[in-house]
Amino acid sequence: MADYHIEVMIPEDEVDRRIKEIGEQITKDYAGKQVHLICVLKGGSFFLCELAKRINLDVSLDFMSVSSYGGDTKSSGVVKIVKDLDESIKDKEVLIVEDIVDSGRTLSYLLSMMKDRKPASLKLCTLLDKPSRRVMDVKVDYTGFEIPDEFVVGYGLDYDQKYRNLPYIGVVKFD
Ligand code: IMP
Ligand code: MG
Q: Tell me, which fold does domain 13-150 have in CATH?
């Protein structure tokens, strides 16, 4: 039997409403431009789909997948690229779409790597942010919700690869 249960932290209608707001903000901020959304798999995928539908501009998409190195290198923030982007981002208006910024290690590494590829602009949009957990300084341009230091699932986020498909943000409570 499971020794935990999941409680609702942010209900579905609130998540949907906030994504709509961010989409409207992005539409204003990038007016007249094409936005190139980069989704960090797998967690960012649910947010990316909902967000892209709320951006009233030309949008193109690309996907990448990364995993953290274990052991000593973890603190250095080096992440391994499991799947790189299909297309060049040079001269594009790039917006990285993530599920959550926690320690900031993944994003700090990804942002510096993306910067080297010379996009026209580079911004970061995250559904969730746990600022109290930050180890590496990361500038977040669009945040859905700031949340406390709790382990959350749903809307792309998993616990042991499960619960990504929950339509709300849940918190894992250990019994
Ligand atoms: P970082 O610590 O900011 O590098 O975050 C690394 C990754 O850890 C995130 O992209 C998520 O995939 C995962 N993660 C961090 N916090 C949570 C959580 O509360 N639930 C599920 N995954 C999480
Ligand atoms: Mg992630």
A: Rossmann fold (3.40.50)
